[in-house]
Design brief:
Length: 101
Amino acid sequence: MTTTAQDSTVQREKGEHGGRYVIRLESDDEAVMTYKDMPGDTIAIDHTFVPPRYRGQGHAELLVQAAIDDARTENLRIIPVCSYVAAQFRRHPEWRDLLAP
């Protein structure tokens, strides 16, 4: 059985200076997106990774959407350092208000 994004749950794990969003997949695989806390209620999303056999199923998009939802709830701004996240911001102009200046 292959886990699809629609079957997945994103968990947020916070650390002292940042954290990660993670989807636990089969065989101890994880789809993960990491971020660092920055000054001024800002996070810098710096890395997104989905194991090759799970790519193209929407997992990375689900990770980004979880960060967007949290940013809206917590009044955070985002610096999209990761190229995937930057591309998602270009595809979603409705997120423009969340970009850090």
